[in-house]
Amino acid sequence: MGRAYEEIDGKLAEFMLSQPVFFVATAPLDAGGHLNLSPKGLSGTFQVLDPGTVAYLDLTGSGVETIAHLRENRRIVLMFCAFAGPPRIVRIHGTGEVVDRSDPKFTNLIGHFPSVEGTRSVIVAGVERVSDSCGFGVPLMDYRGDREMLPQWAARKGEAGLDDYRREKNATSIDGLPGLG
After folding, report:
1. 0.90 cut: is pTM over it?
2. Nearest to residue 176, comparing CAs of 36, 33, 31?
3. Are 100 and 58 in contact (CB under 8 A)?
4. Which domains does the chain have, with CATH numbers?
């Protein structure tokens, strides 16, 4: 039942944009390094920019693995699962770019998203392969809403507090790769 697509068409975009959670995977080049798989969510933080490009807001958190891996080798996979409705999984394999707040491209990109406290960058992925599969093994689950804890935490910290936090917690990955500097 799985199928590969040349680009993201309207139906694929609609499916991805309707999912309340997606997953991002990256890995360092070092075979002994740690793979990273992160759940992402919050309404509006993922966007299809065009048939060959997607982007999502990267929010301040305790780790910096995705940023470190993308800066080292640019490999990224995004996965969307239908937890409601017909079963389906969509994967996007591509090359990612970290567009942080100091990058001139950030101002244009951020306009595609709602304002979310704690945004540290926009991750942009050029699509190299799009595929879907059945999703028969994905459980049915009810979506009750976004958790507001992360934006609230970021708002309490304030911009100066977030800058301090990023310097302390986001300077390097768990494998010692450069993160935010």
Report:
1. yes
2. 33
3. no
4. 3-169 (2.30.110.10)
